[in-house]
Amino acid sequence: MFEEKKAEWLRIAESLKPTLRREIVRPVSGMPDHALAENESFVLDFGNHFVGHLTLKLSSKGSHPDAPAWLAVKFCENNRELNESLDEYRGWISKGWVQQEQAHIDVLPAELHFSRRYAFRFVKIDVLALSSKYRLVIEDAFAEVTTAADDGALMPLTGDEKDIAIDQVALRTLRNCMQDVFEDGPKRDRRLWMGDLRLQALTNSVTYRNFDLVKRCLYLFAATADREGRIAACLFTEPKVEADDTYMFDYSLFFIPTLLQYAQATGDQAAMDDLLPLALQQLALMDVQFDPETQLIRDCDQLGWCFVDWALPMNKQFCAQAIWIFCAQAALKIKADPALEEKILLRREAARKHWYDQERRLFVSGAKRQISWASQVWAVLAGIVEGADAAACLDAAAACPNAVPMVTPYMMHHYVEALCRVGRKKEAQQVIRDYWGSMVGHGADTFWELYNPKNPDESPYGSPVVNSYCHAWSCTPAWFLRSGILKEGT
Ligand code: RAM
Q: Is the CA virtual torsion 187, 191, 193, 196 positive or negative?
């Protein structure tokens, strides 16, 4: 029965597959003005971040080529990648993500077409080998680039110049992640993750308004739920739609607020009715992880059991409890349920009783009573703490030098939202200007997966070479700037 339902959901998802918008773009600078010799190199600059397929038209000068032309081609989202090398890479995720390849061209002239899709602004080409009898001519370079976003759907933003610049970069980030699904990043991992989708859908609702793509993604998650109905943290669409075998406490639960937000933005009651039972099932499935005596979520030391942020030393127990409450509250907004309401109250009280440090006016997490920024942010967003105490929590994190910091724009989004929630709109705006604005200051065309202003080499993967520089979850300044949430009194 459930399998039939899932097959139906998959059909709905596939019927909403977008027709991508295609465009041909050419470099704005960097085209060589002479025939190249062996060991020469050049960098094409396309002037902005794009996602697509590159073609190089090549010919030769001199004698008939008597040896292959051998090229190394590197695609870079960001200029820091131009000088990075893979040689030292010892990180824990695949170096296969690094956007580089080599080509041997036996016959010239030739059209060298890259069948792999790349995310790039810059393309660095090294001529590794020719022969002394000929030189290489780059006749043309162009890329066919794609997106599922319609730039024509955008309303102009007026106001502060710096905000407009931040908004532009945020829009570009979202746009270039909008492909066959809402990807987390077109360089890496190029797939649909629930945590990213929630923030993309939010931003999409006030920008490109491609609600069919949101609906498709919700149905893809539904169609790939496991036998018990558990929603995976992420899924693949090639060669066929399939869930990844990665499950995260928070990502499964975020199906609920994402569905609520979609239904509120579109009024699509049919989709809501269709998917609501599965959404509620996520809450029920997580119940076994709570201690029935204390109503506290059990802690876990497995990497990624609950995501929250890429701060590796962070204890997630408190945040998991808060996120469960946050998502259960979203469920209540969809449908009244006195038993669920009661459970929320119990778990809220349990969190306050066990983890609130009265003296410091903040929440701790785990057996070691760790202090993190994330715990304070989620305490506020879940309404575990309210009024003056809520604002005090955020201040207490700032006053605690050992508090585990936030490292991703994903976590910073939640921080800015928490500031809005406690009424500190000006401060929220300032954080956007300082944090995302400083990426713009570093020349960002799109916002990055990770950014720690104090440590530009921050990477949870062991090295920044595999970091993604157009990352979905960092697109939300466009939501903050366009939704009105930053206005006093909202
Ligand atoms: C990384 C990706 C993705 C995120 C997960 C949890 O692999 O950056 O965006 O959602 O982590």
A: positive
DSSP class of 299? P
Tokens encoding 360: 């410091």
| Token pair belonging to 85 | 């090398």
**pLDDT more than 70, % of the chain:** 100
**Taking the CB of residue 1, how many other CB atoms lie within 10 A of it?**
5
Contact 428, 422 (CB under 8 A): no
Predicted confidence at residue 305, as pLDDT, reads 97
- Cβ–Cβ < 8 Å for 97, 19: no
Beta strand pairing status for 21-25 and 134-147? antiparallel
67 neighbors 130 (Cβ within 8 angstroms): yes
Which atom from ligand 1 is nearest to the alpha carbon of 93? 7
User: Cα(175)–Cα(147) distance, rounded to whole angstroms?
Assistant: 6
pLDDT at residue 88, rounded to an integer: 83
Phi, psi of 183 (to 5 degrees): -80, 155
CA of 411 to the centre of ligand 1 (A): 12
| Residue type at 470 in one-letter notation | C
Residue range 74-88, pLDDT digits in tens: 999 999 999 998 888
The residue contributing the CA closest to ligand 1 atom 9 is: 184
184 Cα to the center of ligand 1, angstroms: 7
Residues with a CB atom less than 6 Å from ligand 1? 184, 189, 193, 195-196, 307, 449, 473
What pLDDT, in 10s, does the model give residues 425-475?
999 999 999 999 999 999 999 999 999 888 878 888 988 999 999 999 999
Beta carbons of 228 and 6 less than 8 angstroms apart: no
CB-CB contact of 452 with 177 (8 Å): no
Q: Which residues pair with 41 in a beta bridge?
A: 126
Residue 468 CA: nearest ligand 1 atom is 8
pLDDT of 150 higher than 90: yes
Indicate yes or no: pTM above 0.85. Answer: yes
Which residue, 104, 90, 195, 201, is CA-closest to 459?
Answer: 90
379, 370 contact by CB (below 8 A): no
Contact status, residue 183 vs residue 472, Cβ threshold 8 Å: yes
Residue to probe by mutation, ligand 1, list 92, 234, 458, 467, most atoms within 8 Å of CB: 234
Neighbouring C-beta atoms of residue 210, cutoff 10 Å: 22
Report the alpha-carbon distance of residue 432 to residue 435 in Å, rounded: 5
Q: Is the pLDDT assigned to residue 162 strictly greater than 90?
A: yes
Q: What average pLDDT does this structure show over 383-412?
A: 96
Mean pLDDT in residue range 291-315: 96
Judge whether 192 and 234 are in contact, CB under 8 Å. Answer: yes
Is it true that the peptide bond before 109 is cis, omega within 30 degrees of 0? yes
